[in-house]
Here is the input.
Amino acid sequence: MSSRVKVVVTGAAGQITYSLIPRLLDGKTFGNKIVDLVMVEIPQVVSKLEGVLMELEDSSFPNMGSVEYTDNFADAAKDADWFLLVGSIPRGIVYEGKKIEERSDLLRINGGIFVNQGEAIGKYGKKDAKILVVGNPANTNALIGQNASGVNSQLWMAMTMLDCNRAKSVISKKVQCSIEEVKKMIIWGNHSPTMYPDIENAIVNNSSVGSLVNDMEWVDKTFLPTVQQRGKAVIDARGASSATSAAKAALDTIIACENPTGDGDCFSAAVASDGAYGVPEGLICGYPLMTMEDGSVEIIRDISLSNFAKEKFDISIAELESEREAVKDLL
Ligand SMILES: NC(=O)c1ccc[n+]([C@@H]2O[C@H](COP(=O)([O-])OP(=O)(O)OC[C@H]3O[C@@H](n4cnc5c(N)ncnc54)[C@H](O)[C@@H]3O)[C@@H](O)[C@H]2O)c1
Here is the structure.
């Protein structure tokens, strides 16, 4: 295995990346590998990355290789192993005089970015590159990017790890266990308020969390809305979207992909459906995943879903289909 890894990060002068980028270099995320980093921004703010670069140099990170910054994504993409596509316009900010709160606005504004980035990743990225889309609407941005890349051997993912971590936090408080004891926390569907965090298949000490809680009223009326609406709750409280928790979730996703998944566990991210669990082919859908010994990432296919779960999952699938319809001119 290569002892170096090249990582491209977009939105590198943003909130999430201020927390994310340093931790790519600290020797924990990529183990012993030396990280060659390219930070990408839009031309209007790319000069700020000189300051980020200075801070990285001043931090004495043990695994820092070459660090560059640019506003040219195609240049950045050459031979990259990992792409962290964070750059986009977040919900809640004022853009062209209008407060961006609706997903439809996000789809329109952000979709175009991912056509160009997808093409460049297909053309210049490594053929086994892994791509994690964080910028919202993450699933549909990933759909657009993957479609534009045209390279099937690259792995496109949209991030649902933050939703997974949020669900684990609520569960650990409810059943009084540590976060590490919560396993198999699956986020089905879209990274949006329709996502389905699957409490019935989550386990703590080999028991289903659904049966430990044994209160479907609490699941339906408290657990699901708390996890599904957590992004909005953070925006309402902080006046800005989740940043440090989103950065941690991106790091957790990388670590999950870089190391074989432990027995009886899985990790959450959205990947292209091949029809698994009845999801229309091609949609980028939240699934239970595992990383194999050879580094490939597979959908786990033997999870049972209750009627309650199927009903909720179907709502999220319908939303993904409607988002695909809304961007069909970009596909
Ligand atoms: N998937 C998740 O769980 C999750 C969680 C939180 C936030 N998000 C999303 O992550 C994105 C970033 O959030 P943030 O708080 O860091 O926003 P931010 O506004 O602080 O930073 C975004 C940065 O992206 C840059 N950018 C925009 N278009 C770009 C492009 N084409 N190429 C390179 N850079 C570009 C902007 O200049 C800006 O610096 C938002 O879309 C937000 O909704 C996703």
Remarks:
- The two ends are 35 Å apart (CA to CA).
- The mean pLDDT is 95.
- The chain has two domains: 4-158, 161-330.
